[in-house]
Write a structure and sequence with these properties.
mainly alpha; 4 domains; 3-stranded antiparallel β-sheet
Length: about 450
């Protein structure tokens, strides 16, 4: 019912299968525009009740208020009314929150003003006390310089008064309650506000720091693994922020899983950072295909491998990314070509102008009788076509980009045996002898 996308909660409810043609949607997705889970639950409960009433109306196609038949347009108007009412509720809530914030600021200002008045009274009294003490000290010093004789009673009274003032000031700065005995002083119950404690840094490292520590700094990990894991971590940080590792629990992992299944499949192909909320809403609005279960599983496997490294380093206690289920059903099942389809393909005219028919025929022939991938076939060179112990073979080489017009071998080649049809005249007719690459284009 609730899905956290970024910092905002969304109401999510599947439309019954029988009613989907009426609404043109497989599920309702409404932004609640709040990051407070308690508020989101209250809004979701109200929306659940309204959508349930909408489903009942759709099943009977009768307006319960007027007891008359309704059309599909009337039904869509009822759905738009639900969204409009939810937006009005959000606007009202935002206005109330703004007013409450003003009240809190006014209350804080009044409290601060009262504290300032009490502080001013404290400073006034302490200034007067210090001035009286200073005058007594000056008088005593002058008497000592002039050698004026004083009786013991006068000297004792002045000493007693100085000690009393000294003790009063000491208590004044240490405890404060001594001010209660001075007119206009701060009440004894008043305590000056102590400075707020400095927030301590989290003991658990944040996710990006843990990524550098557990994976990127490991020289044994491949560059591809580091790149893909960093990409998954960046996607998580974009959605939930750079959280400390200890705060990433199974609940957050589940919300990340729901988010991935809600993103359009085109999001993974984009090279620019896009707003997640906007992408989810776009996928729902236009009913776009979302990420496959295999893609979501790959993201979780990368994070699970990272967490295993963090557990070994005692940075994390348990792995919230393991033991999840994914729908791995293929959306586009693969099948073999039928005889009629192959006959139609072979008899059709070749209309492509960028690739010759001979090159197309050669690539198709190699793929059919060797099982090689398209990239491996296109990278074939003349010296890769060899016979090993009398058996025709293709040498599959992992190549790196061209350097000074030449490609360099990255590792030892793998041999792929082939069958006789690959060595027919049609295959060799596609061979290019002018340059190093086997196929003409």
């Amino acid at each position: 019912m609730l899905a956290l996308v970024g910092t905002h909660y969304h109401f999510r409810r599947a439309v019954p299968v029988a009613l989907r043609p009426l609404f043109g949607k497989t599920e309702f997705w409404i932004s609640l525009k709040t990051g407070n889970k308690s508020e989101a639950r209250l809004s979701a409960m109200a929306l659940h009740a309204r959508t349930s009433a909408l489903f009942r109306t759709a099943r009977t196609m009768t307006d319960p208020a007027q007891n008359k038949p309704i059309t599909k347009d009337d039904l869509l108007a009822l759905y738009e009314d639900i969204i409009k009412r939810q937006e009005e509720v959000i606007e009202t809530t935002e206005r109330n929150a703004a007013e409450q914030l003003k009240i809190e600021r006014y209350t804080a200002s009044m409290t601060r003003y009262e504290d300032l008045l009490k502080t001013r009274a404290f400073l006034t009294y302490s200034t007067d006390a210090l001035e009286r003490l200073n005058q007594h000290i000056i008088t005593l010093r002058q008497d000592m310089i002039s050698g004026k004789m004083q009786d013991k009673a006068t000297l004792a009274s002045k000493t007693e008064e100085i000690e009393r003032l000294h003790d009063t000031l000491v208590k004044l700065f240490q405890t404060g309650p001594a001010l209660s005995q001075a007119p206009g002083a701060v009440p004894p119950s008043h305590q000056l506000a102590s400075p707020s404690p400095t927030p301590t840094a989290p003991t658990s490292p944040r996710l990006t720091e843990a990524l550098n520590l557990g994976l990127l700094a490991d020289s044994q990990k491949s560059d591809a693994t580091k790149k893909e894991t960093a990409r998954t971590v960046a996607l998580f940080v974009q959605a939930f922020g750079d959280k400390p590792v200890q705060e990433i629990t199974g609940r957050i992992a589940g919300e990340f899983r729901d988010l991935l299944f809600s993103l359009p499949s085109s999001y993974a192909k984009s090279k620019q950072d896009m707003d997640l909320n906007a992408e989810v809403e776009r996928a729902q609005e236009f009913d776009l295909p979302t990420l496959s279960g295999k893609s979501v599983k790959n993201h979780f496997m990368r994070l699970s491998a990272l967490w295993n490294q963090l557990i070994r380093r005692e940075i994390a206690e348990k792995n919230p990314w393991s033991n999840w289920d994914f729908d791995l059903t293929k959306r586009n099942p693969r099948r073999a070509w039928t005889d009629d389809e192959l006959a139609l393909l072979s008899s059709s005219a070749w209309t492509c102008s960028t690739i010759s028919q001979a090159t197309f025929a050669g690539i198709t022939l190699v793929a059919a009788y060797s099982g090689m991938r398209l990239g491996e076939i296109c990278n074939l060179r003349n010296e890769d076509i060899q016979k090993v112990d009398g058996i025709p073979c293709f040498l599959i080489r992992a190549l790196i980009p061209k350097t000074n017009g030449h490609r360099k071998q990255k590792r030892a080649p793998a041999m792929c045996p082939s069958t006789a049809p690959c060595w027919s005249g049609a295959f060799w007719s596609s061979r290019k002898t002018v340059r190093n690459s086997f196929f003409r284009n």
